Amino acid sequence: MRWIGWIFWGTLAALLVALLHYNLPRREIVRITGVEIKLERIDPDSVFWAASEGGAATGPVERDVRFIDTVRADGGVMVFRNEDTGGGWPPYFKFDSANLQAEARNLVSTAADPRWVAMRYYGWRIPLLSVYPNALSVRPVDGPDVRLIPWFNIVVLTLLVAVIWAVGVRLRRWSRVHVSPWLDRGDRRVAEWSDAIRRRRGR
């Protein structure tokens, strides 16, 4: 019966890691090659796009979305959407997507004369599903090899680990008193059923 607990906690841990990886901000050192506004057909129930301001919709809607095209030092490309998060999730309270688009346009450069920037963003890039990470801010850096320490993520993860540890200690105490005896009884019953089946087969 204990394998049920391992499956439950493993699934929960995987979901937590995916949630953190998607929502925590990351930074990419890139060169901006262009900015544009494209008309996108978006499902209003999609979690990979900002909530529409047009109210509740019954089906996919079309709206303009700002995009920032970039290139990494290794030549790989990365496309960011630039949408306001407002007061929704994740709670970055981003209301300045127009200003960010203007900043990105001002930082456009070429391969012959590159201007490297640190793009702060959250989300994933999934080409098959047309999913783009959302840009949060941009600032110039000295070069593609600059080292940036993610202080925000360090603080958040430290606090999260402390909370999980505190909750885990209390859950283990509760489990020893209430859950473990129940699992032990279940293990004994399974063993008794297995013995009974073997005895019947022996007859």
Description of the molecule:
- The chain is an alpha+beta fold.
- It folds into two domains: 2-11 and 156-202, no CATH class; 26-147, no CATH class.
- 41% of the residues lie in helices and 24% in strands.
- The protein contains three helices and five strands; from the N terminus they run H-E-E-E-H-E-E-H.
- It has helices spanning 2-23, 97-106, 151-202; strands at residues 26-42, 61-72, 77-82, 116-122, 134-140.
- It has a five-stranded antiparallel beta sheet with strand order 3-2-1-4-5.
- A hairpin with a 4-residue loop joins strand 2 and strand 3.
- The chain is elongated, with a radius of gyration of 25 Å.
- It starts with a helix and ends with a helix.
Kindly estimate the percentage of residues that lie in beta strands according to DSSP: 15-25%
Largest sheet: 5 strands, antiparallel
Q: Based on helices, strands and strand pairing, what is the structural class?
A: alpha+beta
Q: How many helical elements?
A: 3
- Uncertain segments are none
Protein name: DUF1523 domain-containing protein
Transmembrane segments: 6-24, 148-168
Keywords: Membrane, Transmembrane, Transmembrane helix
Pfam families: DUF1523
